[in-house]
Amino acid sequence: MSDLGSSAVAELPLFPLSTVLLPGGRMGLRIFERRYLDLIRDTMRNQQSFGIVWLAEGGAELLKSGERQATLAQIGTEAHIADWDQLPDGLLGVVVEGRRRFQLASARQDDTGLYIGEVSWLTEQEDVVLPPRSTELHDLLRQLGEHPHVQRLGMQLNVETAGALANSLAQLLPLPAADAYQILGIDAPLARLDALHDILDALSS
């Protein structure tokens, strides 16, 4: 897990999800709650970012009920809006792209129920070239890139480094959220790729 240094604490609005966003990854969101419509509007208007944090099992129900605060994961990802459109059901659809990882120091809710987090940006290790053993994973990413849904996301899949390959695959493959979060929390790029390989081996066995 993450044990690197981090920068000074900053304040960031949070969008808790039952899925995980990784740096360089993209995902589509359907926006319908007023607090998140306002968040997306303000983000686009001010060209700012927000944070996506994982909700562990049962967290989504707590978030909806409003009875008490849901437990948010300690590590999240800064999200930028890459694209948006009105969906066929009339809801706002946005595509977000993951940027920097952060450590969540604390979180509070404002009057609308929106979480505001105090975060520190994690210091990233320099990525490394793909090792020879990653050929199969690289081919898998290429195959995923041919899927229409992945093409609509517009992710950059021409990756030649270990960390970027691990992030891209963990984002696109239907992994359990806990496994994707495990990948998110690993600092060393080669260790991240090895962990993904182990996860895929375990799922296929």
TrEMBL record:
- Alphabetical list of SMART domains matching this protein: LON
> What Pfam families is this protein classified in?
LON_substr_bdg
Which positions fall inside the Lon N-terminal domain?
9-204
Identify the domain of life. Answer: Bacteria
Name of this chain's protein: Lon N-terminal domain-containing protein
